[in-house]
Amino acid sequence: MMKKIIVTFLLGLGLSSQTLVANDLDQKGTHDPFVEMKKMQDEIDKIFERMRSNMLDEEFFSTFTTPKSGNILVDLKELKDRYQLKADIPGADNNKINISTKNGVLKIEAKTQKDEKKKEKNFLKEERFIGTFVRELTLPKDADVDKMQSHYKEGVLEIEIPKKH
Question: What's the pTM?
Answer without folding.
Answer: 0.53
